[in-house]
């Protein structure tokens, strides 16, 4: 359905006059917005000049950059924003909780490097350096294991509470292997994932928008919903259930990103007791039905607790995937599982195997950095970072929300420990502008913008206070520039209705007939 709908959305964009008043703002508001936009655009041009120029140099030849730069804001605004805010994609160095760009700007890092950065960049630099020293003698020899791997295996099995481990090069691959083994051992075809959850970019776990093919052996069920348990109880073709515990922050919703921020409708809230109860129910039904329960902890593993989501929610899985942080800053995917599920052959049928290899699996340098990472988990300095983790991040979020509320700003945060998302309390078409005010305030965000902020655990109270002050002052500047002006009767529903109408108009304009079939050649009418 989502893919079909996506294929019907026509391209159109706002021209300069429309850009500032898509919500029907009066002239004085439009003028304030325009002045604010120009001021901010000058700040970007001066402050990020070299970084932006270097980015422009390669952008034409790097498909990733073209994609991310296009999808930072809703597509109707994108071209105009791209012309005025050159977001650079280069960094020179990092230290503490900050990164430095090519213009010498020191920015507080809220990207968390897609979740890899749990303990601070200096920690990972050391893991990579010390790990490299450990394996230098062997170098890039593949196929055999470096001796450091022995400890890694032992430690990963302790942490996961499972029997066997396999190493891969990315989280996506670890998930692929988990699902393949579940299918092999159960003899069933289908995997279950929950609405909105991300498990990497492999086709079977990404059945909606983004994948040109339909995933025919995937069921996408509603998270935290009794009806999904009934499906698991009644169907006979389900091999496994994949859980991404990050969804606890926004069940049934995809990772929030500013490119889809057309209104203020999306909210987030983490209820740990309710989510843990849901996991226990899933555990029960999976056990009863012989379905393999897989926790995909590629993102949250080691971030929520030393023992990951299993420890945090006190529920055990049959298989667990790890990735991102666990190789001390180098690329990796890890699968741990019960012995009966991890076996890739059958004693009684020698030709019936479950194949899985990968040239770079268990690469010595990756194993070296992982060894450092796992060893350091037991040091006092890392244990200290986990101390009062929940209270620390919950109270930081609460205090920031109190300050935002006291200042009457329409911005709030919700958090799952150190993973945060910003949401908006009043209907607006311009919330995505907030990412540019935050960047101008010296905060580094990932390309999804305000939807996902990831803090490393080495943020001190002082570091965080500085970030909180900057969030406040960015929001105040955005309000001063009138992006949050709204007519009294504006609702999120009326915004969505208006955008839908624009889409219908654009379909008419591009095809000369009502929307019925997928768009062939795309024209680009401007909406006046
Ligand atoms: C829960 C989860 N699973 C799998 C993946 C894929 O990992 P990778 O990007 O290393 O392939 C991700 C990446 O963000 C993830 O968050």
Please report the number of helical segments: 19
β-strand percent reads 5-15%
Output the structural class: alpha/beta
Main sheet specs: 7 strands, mixed
Q: What do these coordinates show?
A:
Helix content is 43%, strand content 12%. 43% of the residues are buried. The chain starts with a helix and ends with a strand. The model is unreliable at 515-523 (pLDDT under 50). It contains 19 helices and 16 strands. Strands 5-11-10-9-8-6-7 form a seven-stranded mixed β-sheet, sandwiched between helices. A four-stranded mixed β-sheet has the order 2-3-4-14. A three-stranded antiparallel β-sheet has the order 12-13-15. The protein is globular, with a radius of gyration of 24 Å. α7 packs across α14, α8 crosses α14 (364-376) and α17 (434-440) packs across α18. A hairpin with a 5-residue loop joins β3 (98-100) and β4. It has 528 residues and is an alpha/beta fold. The site of pyridoxal-5'-phosphate has 14 residues, from α9.
């Amino acid at each position: 359905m989502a893919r079909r709908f996506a294929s019907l959305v026509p391209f159109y964009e706002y021209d300069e006059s429309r850009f500032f008043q898509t919500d029907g703002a009066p002239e004085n508001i439009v003028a304030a917005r325009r002045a604010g936009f120009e001021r901010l655009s000058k700040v970007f041009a001066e402050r990020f000049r070299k970084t932006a120029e270097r980015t422009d140099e390669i952008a034409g030849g790097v498909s990733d950059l073209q994609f991310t730069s296009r999808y930072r804001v809703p597509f109707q605004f994108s071209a105009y924003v791209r012309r005025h805010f050159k977001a650079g994609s280069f960094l020179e160095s990092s230290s503490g909780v900050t990164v430095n760009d090519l213009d010498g700007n020191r920015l507080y890092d809220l990207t968390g490097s897609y979740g890899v950065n749990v303990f601070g960049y200096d920690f990972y630099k050391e893991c990579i350096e010390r790990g490299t020293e450990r394996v230098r003698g062997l170098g890039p020899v593949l196929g055999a294991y470096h001796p450091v791997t022995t400890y890694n295996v032992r430690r990963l099995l302790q942490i996961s509470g499972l029997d066997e481990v396999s190493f891969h090069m990315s989280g996506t691959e670890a998930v692929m292997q988990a699902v393949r083994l579940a299918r092999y051992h159960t003899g069933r075809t289908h995997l279950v994932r929950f609405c909105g959850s991300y498990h990497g970019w492999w086709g079977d776990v990404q059945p909606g928008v983004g994948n040109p093919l339909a995933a025919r052996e995937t069921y996408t069920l509603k998270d935290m919903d009794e009806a999904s348990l009934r499906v698991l109880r009644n169907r006979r073709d389900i091999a496994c259930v994949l859980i991404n515990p990050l969804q606890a922050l926004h069940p049934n919703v995809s990772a929030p990103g500013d490119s889809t921020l057309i209104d203020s409708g999306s909210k987030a809230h983490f209820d740990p007791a309710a989510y843990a109860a849901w996991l226990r129910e899933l555990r029960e039904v999976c056990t009863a039905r012989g379905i393999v329960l897989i926790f995909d902890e590629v993102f949250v593993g080691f971030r929520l607790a030393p023992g990951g989501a299993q420890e945090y929610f006190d529920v055990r899985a049959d298989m667990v995937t790890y990735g991102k942080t666990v190789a001390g800053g180098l690329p990796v995917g890890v699968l741990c599982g019960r012995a009966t599920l991890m076996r890739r052959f059958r004693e009684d049928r020698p030709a019936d195997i479950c194949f899985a290899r990968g040239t770079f699996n268990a690469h010595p340098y990756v194993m070296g950095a992982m060894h450092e990472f796992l060893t350091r988990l037991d040091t006092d300095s890392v244990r200290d970072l986990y101390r009062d983790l929940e209270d620390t991040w919950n109270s930081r979020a609460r205090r920031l929300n109190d300050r935002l509320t006291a200042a009457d700003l329409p911005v709030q945060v919700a958090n799952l420990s150190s993973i945060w998302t910003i949401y908006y309390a009043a209907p607006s078409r311009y919330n995505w502008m907030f990412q540019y005010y935050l960047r101008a305030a010296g905060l580094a965000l990932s390309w999804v913008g305000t939807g996902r902020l990831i803090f490393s655990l080495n943020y001190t109270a002082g570091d965080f206070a500085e970030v909180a002050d900057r969030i406040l002052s960015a929001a105040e500047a955005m309000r001063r520039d009138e992006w949050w002006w709204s007519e009294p009767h504006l609702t999120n529903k009326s915004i969505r209705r208006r955008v839908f109408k624009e889409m219908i108009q654009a379909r008419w304009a591009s095809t000369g007939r009502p929307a019925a079939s997928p768009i062939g050649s795309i024209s680009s009418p401007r909406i006046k």
